[in-house]
Amino acid sequence: MTEIPAPPVAKQVPTERTVHGDTVVDEYAWLKDRDDPDTVAYLEAENTFTQAATAHTKALQDEIFDEIKSRTLETDLSVPTRHHGWWYYTRTLEGSQYPIHCRSRTEPALPADPAEPIVSPADEVVLLDQNELAGDSPYFALGTFDVSPDGRLLAFSTDFDGGEKYTLRFKDLETGATLPDEVPGTYYGSAWAADGSALFYTTVDDAMRPFRVWRHLLGTAAADDVIVHEETDERFFAGVGLTRSEQYVVIELGSQITSETWVLPATDPQGEFRVVQPREQGVEYSLDHTGDSFYIVHNKDAADFELVVAPADAPGRENWRPVLPHTPGVRVTGVDAFAGHLVVSMRRDGRTELHVLTLADGAVAGPGRDIEFAEPVRTVRPGSNPEFDTTVFRLGYASLTTPSSVYDYDVAGGELTLRKRQPVLGGVDLSVYESVREWATAPDGTRVPISLVKRRDTPRDGTAPCVLYGYGSYEASMDPWFSIARLSLLDRGYVFAIAHVRGGGELGRRWYEDGKLLHKTNTFTDFVACGEHLVAAGWTSHDRLAGRGGSAGGLLIGAVANLAPSTFATLVGEVPFVDALNTILDPTMPLTVVEWEEWGNPVESAEVYAYMKSYSPYENVEARPYPAILATAGLNDPRVGYHEPAKWVARLRATATGDRPLLLKTEMGAGHGGPSGRYDAWRDEAFTLAFIIDTTSGTNLA
């Protein structure tokens, strides 16, 4: 066996931080400067070391990659979506990293059997081939993909380094020509004027906060574009879109707990936007449009939100009339409005639900009904529904044992029609897997749900290895999802579990509020409680248990490393937010001012400072044994700076005792989402799974 070289040792340059009378020395603050040649040299040295330290798993990585590839239908077709007389869909081709966007007047036929060839309609038009756009670039991402209401024009934007600043371009879909208009430095979101004469888009400030909404008139220079809204409150993000009815351009302004919406008739692109309801601290609302009304979901005196209706020409709160009044414990998350019905998204008993209301003459007619599903542990959400005047609602469905599925729901008759289920090739028998719901008890007595999946023949005697996944921030729920890559774990005897910890939104708004600000540590202790429950219940053992999370979920992983290092054998933090206090103290960083309503403001509050310091992973590394740790980073990541995992690993390596591996893997040409191409992403996942297997299987592969 080739001897593994000594790990890199980052230089120490003591830098003092004094806040609220507390002085802290940070030896690795220099890593924040990516222009320092020592920074890139250190990241590359860590990559070299990680490659050497995991070389013995290369055969396993290749095996897992081949499993993912062999189980995935590489040449595939999405379920076509109808809009204004066209069928829109994407195709993927074997060997190609990215999808091809197409449309046709003839509905493409979905093969009944994955083995059958896909036959494109004779009148197919390729709107955009992402593979051609990507060329030889190691990274590529498509931002905006927006067809004008009249179907003549396509607005699309591209990013070649993962920095999430996109160049916006336009294509004439009748001639196939790319127009000379070009707008650099744009962000997500766009909205067309009704006649295709103008497009609204957003740009970001120096802290990567989308703060300006612009209007571009087709055929004019980007320098002549006009700012239609500039958000001066640094807590608020700005977004722009078009209602499904295509009647209104909507500007949505939101902080973590407050929102405000402005609207403009899409037929009057050079008109003035008007506010629906002026912002009020702590009040959030969102809307959709149909007929002469806006249907609005809000939380004014309604902690779990309710649905109201207001006239479009006078939509202020004084005119809101209840449609679905507030029900504590039933979290209303959104509404989709159509010509003849509404579909309300909600959460009940920890599950996602869809509730249908019929409209007559623009008003709700009678009680609604839920769309029913048999599996108790599953995820259902709205699918692609661009057509406004329709009686069919498309939805997405998945569970831990059911692959991603597309259904069409007949609003009048109530029937569900399965249009497509993600194929799983290679002779996989999905009936050998089962899903289970468990409940752990947190230190304060709160019951925390856990979703598990395993093979039916996996023993429950403590011998099975297990991966526990968690997130727990921003009210984002980690609802059960299916993964082909995960099968490579399950077939090796693993249990996969999701800890639905506080800070997420699984059990309503209170579940979120109990895991943020000065309650944030509940997120971490919930996760530890879930891990301990899995051990106590015989699902696994401490020496075979891995924890995994990304971004804010990486903060969870880092906090758990300090809080309960003996609970887990392995921890994987993907682009982890592990230097949380230093970042939230710096108003120039992307995750700062807009985040104070999530974490608190340690600049102004000594209490928040002390509380964040008590859990921020980087602040609390100690001289003790740690689990095996893999941290990943993206050099161009605009959300969680590469320096956070880099500093964390540097301090761990200099401080920790024990002999478990501490590895850092940085994508030198990508951002927050990691590799962009699907094959590259599969190899990246194979690497991570091989690391987990190597460090939790009970037998080191070296």
UniProtKB/TrEMBL annotation:
Q: Name one GO biological process term.
A: proteolysis
Keywords of the record:
Hydrolase, Protease, Serine protease
Q: Which residues form the Peptidase S9A N-terminal domain?
A: 7-421
Q: List the GO molecular function terms.
A: serine-type endopeptidase activity
Looking at the record, the residues that make up the Peptidase S9 prolyl oligopeptidase catalytic domain are 481-695
Q: Please give the InterPro entries that the UniProt record associates with this protein.
A: AB_hydrolase_fold, Pept_S9A_N, Peptidase_S9_cat, Peptidase_S9A, Serine_Peptidase_S9A
Q: Does the keyword Transcription regulation apply?
A: no
Q: Which Gene3D superfamilies match?
A: alpha/beta hydrolase (3.40.50.1820), Prolyl oligopeptidase, N-terminal domain (2.130.10.120)
Q: Which family does it belong to?
A: Belongs to the peptidase S9A family.
User: Cross-referenced PANTHER family, in alphabetical order?
Assistant: PROLYL ENDOPEPTIDASE-LIKE, PROTEASE FAMILY S9A OLIGOPEPTIDASE
Q: What is this protein called?
A: S9 family peptidase
Which source organism? Answer: Jiangella rhizosphaerae
